[in-house]
Amino acid sequence: MPKTVRPFPTLATGRLSLRAATLADAAAFRDILSVPEVTRFSNWPDRPGKAAAERAMRWMCKAYPSGKGCAWMIEERESRRLVGAIRFNWFVKKSKSGEIGYELHPDFWGRGLMTEAALAVVICGHRYFGLNRIEAWTLPGNPGSDRVLEKAGFRYEGTLRQKAWFKDAFHDFRMFGRLAGDHAVSSRQLPLRDATKTM
């Protein structure tokens, strides 16, 4: 995607606010990544240091203006607590495709919140960014993340064996994808609040 001057697509659901990242979020995001359950099935380093968290936050702040991706910080509307993050890690303009990734503090697991955030981002991806294909991957042994993607309309497409090297090992990637033409995901499926008005 080219660099953009369009307003950032702030999203809101019945229970969540998805807003642009700021450098001030680095400490809170590091706290989330410091929980072993959060990074266990990811390529994030375990217990990242302050510098690593700040580098990640700088990338997330620049992703949308640069046109290379888009990152949201997830806040629970009721408590206004920062509970996680979700983002398009990359866009490919020619193929109108992108990849999502996400993290959520374990205190908020089991409530459908990440599915709610993923649905909002899928709608944004297809409508605002004009993506035809959205991809995601999980590591074997992480059925909770598989279910998030499936509930957001993704289909399991197969496993890429030893796709990546991190944490001193090769890892298989379970690949998921959804297309703009797949079964409809609309604002009727979750209580989006003014999300489409910001797109």
Could you explain how this protein is built, in words?
Helix 1 crosses helix 3 (50-66). This protein is of the alpha+beta class and 199 residues long. The longest helix has 17 residues, at 50-66. It has helices at 26-33, 36-39, 50-66, 113-127, 143-151, and strands at 11-12, 16-20, 70-76, 82-92, 97-104, 133-138, 155-166, 169-179. Residues 186-199 have low confidence and may be disordered. The radius of gyration is 16 Å and the shape is globular. Strand 7 and strand 8 form a beta hairpin. The chain has one domain (11-193): Gcn5-related N-acetyltransferase (GNAT) (Aminopeptidase, 3-Layer(aba) Sandwich), CATH 3.40.630.30. 35% of the residues are buried.
What is shown here, in short?
The chain is α+β, with helices and mostly antiparallel strands.
* Uncertain regions spanning at least 5 consecutive residues: 186-199
- Structural class of the helices, strands and pairings? alpha+beta
In percent terms, what proportion of residues is strand?
25-35%
- The CATH topology comes to Aminopeptidase
The main pleated sheet reads as: 8 strands, mixed
Q: Characterize the overall form.
A: globular
Distance between the termini: 16 Å
The CATH homologous superfamily? Gcn5-related N-acetyltransferase (GNAT)
Provide a count of the helices: 5
What share of residues is helical? 25-40%
Oligomer: single chain
CATH architecture: 3-Layer(aba) Sandwich
The ordered H/E elements are: EEHHHEEEHEHEE
Radius of gyration, Cα only, in angstroms? 16 Å
Mean pLDDT, all residues: 91
Give the strand order, joined by hyphens, for the main sheet.
1-2-3-4-5-6-8-7
Summed up, the domain count is 1
